[in-house]
Amino acid sequence: MMYNDTTLKMKIRILEVSMIEKYKEENRMNDAKRYDVVVERLALRGAKLEDMAQITLDLQIKYLPSLTFELCLEHVQKVVMKREVQNAVLTGLELDELTEKGLISEPLAEMLSSDYGLYGIDEVLALAIVNVYGSIGFTNFGYVDKTKPGIIGKLDAEGKKDGKCNTFLDDIVGAISAAAASSIAHRFAK
Amino acid sequence: MMYNDTTLKMKIRILEVSMIEKYKEENRMNDAKRYDVVVERLALRGAKLEDMAQITLDLQIKYLPSLTFELCLEHVQKVVMKREVQNAVLTGLELDELTEKGLISEPLAEMLSSDYGLYGIDEVLALAIVNVYGSIGFTNFGYVDKTKPGIIGKLDAEGKKDGKCNTFLDDIVGAISAAAASSIAHRFAK
Amino acid sequence: MMYNDTTLKMKIRILEVSMIEKYKEENRMNDAKRYDVVVERLALRGAKLEDMAQITLDLQIKYLPSLTFELCLEHVQKVVMKREVQNAVLTGLELDELTEKGLISEPLAEMLSSDYGLYGIDEVLALAIVNVYGSIGFTNFGYVDKTKPGIIGKLDAEGKKDGKCNTFLDDIVGAISAAAASSIAHRFAK
Amino acid sequence: MMYNDTTLKMKIRILEVSMIEKYKEENRMNDAKRYDVVVERLALRGAKLEDMAQITLDLQIKYLPSLTFELCLEHVQKVVMKREVQNAVLTGLELDELTEKGLISEPLAEMLSSDYGLYGIDEVLALAIVNVYGSIGFTNFGYVDKTKPGIIGKLDAEGKKDGKCNTFLDDIVGAISAAAASSIAHRFAK
Fold first, then answer.
1. Whether B107 and A34 lie within 8 Å, measured CB to CB
2. Residues A124, B120: C-beta atoms closer than 8 Å
3. Would you kindly state where each structural domain of chain B is located, as residue ranges?
């Protein structure tokens, strides 16, 4: 039997739609619409996905010597596609920004603007992000939250300036980087 | 040997101080100063500790038939003394109030004002509260969050009105009640 | 231009492979090999995926009146495909079975065989399962863990018999059912 | 008025009992009976409380230059007094020991004996331990789990030997040390 272009295209299109449907269903925890908003909000606060991909690369390169920056960036993007992650990011950034604008009431304002060590809710949101790729990410999150590599250290220092608040942002950046590292570990699971 | 009043009082005072010191140290996760602020903030939003004590009583009475309202109230107070709980409450209430004032940006504002079912960060904060008395509280939290007894149902309904937002408040109230139930269970552990 | 069967099949195959590759990558947290082992282990302990699908259906039918048993079963299967879930199930069931065989040492054996209310580690594993679809599942888990519908009640009762231990199993079943409910909620997100 | 020895002793005893009662109540999450069992079990596996106190000291000394080893040990002891911690420790050690004895079935046995990186349940139990002093401990746990200072590195290396399994033990030791660091941070809260 022979097919012309139209028949072929139609057959392929049907296959494509069913595949995409399956793929989309699998991705039902994703929210592509909000993805752009979240990426932009993070960038406006000084945290680009590329900065997080670099942290992810540094975390995983010793386990996967052939790992590339591009693959890390892809996994950071996947993490930020998750609805749970987006909600944690939007909530944390909102609190940082409202603190800078002086719209948070006391005694919370004082805790947020000073990045009070016993506050803990920034870590709680970070855990919600890390959890998206399971419990193996806790370790990487704790490690980068302590050692503050790359952009995390920069954001932490910036947050100490007058009028600036990065209390949630630095934990969010660490959590996304750690979740991407977990995602890569699952991807190359033996 | 005989003691006069002064000697006795001094000896008792020394004992008392050392005991209080020990007690206080044990309570180092508490923050008495902020306790009053938190109780007042909850009351201003319509949630009195007594309302939570009633939910706690209803949860535990079948396991402890001799349980009283007063004991439940005492345990609710102990939960609210914990720093981790206070921080979760202050953060959640702030987000509810800022939503009502129209100070939250989109797309978070829409999720908070509509108590969007897939938001999840309200549950994340609730878990941080419940965790204070260990994992046995998860069950009670989930149960009251679903069945919405007493004040929880009232707050949930009120939150649906125009201009009102109780997205975090109803979970917080459920979490404090559940944590107090755990606290009682630990207290009467066999 | 015209294509013959072979060309068409080849073109479609190339598309298919790339789609499957994408799909697989997305599913890198899944472990299909262990899926069969986990399903069989659960069934041997008296918990079939169909029993969990029924609980999921009962939980979600009021939000989605057109929900079917088949769709619930499909989501239960997806939950059990996740590596994190499989590991929690295998660990919990092992502890139940070793308790029955008298291979657990004291004082843990006594806590497990009596399903001690303050043990808590069964809830900790359940949370790890629920977390796979985010924090919105906590509520459903707590609710079914308390109300013990269908197979959960049966397993709980059976676990109280001499020589039987279902301390982890009933929480695992509740957690998988609750996670499947979350998965459905994400799938039909507005 | 004058008191004799007996009156004094009685008066002091009454005060003491009421104080201890209050203290005990506050400590209702503790379990002193099991404390000795847990300490012994940890020691038999090669992990002494002193080893954990040393990790805690190294974690906190930069924030509290006057911190002593003795105070760290005291806080490690307090962490191990908590029921939730004891249950996590007893469960984890049991799984390590049963793995060594060849009593765990496949495919769990293989994951436990090889300390499989994507297993994750060891981290889940560790989190339950860390949570006892709130979310601020996540960071310290992740850090020591990654850098493996002192006894953690030793246990990790030992666990790689044939017939040995420390899959849970090294996470437990890290979690207790991190929780003790949190406890100290709360104690010296400003």
1. yes
2. no
3. 5-187
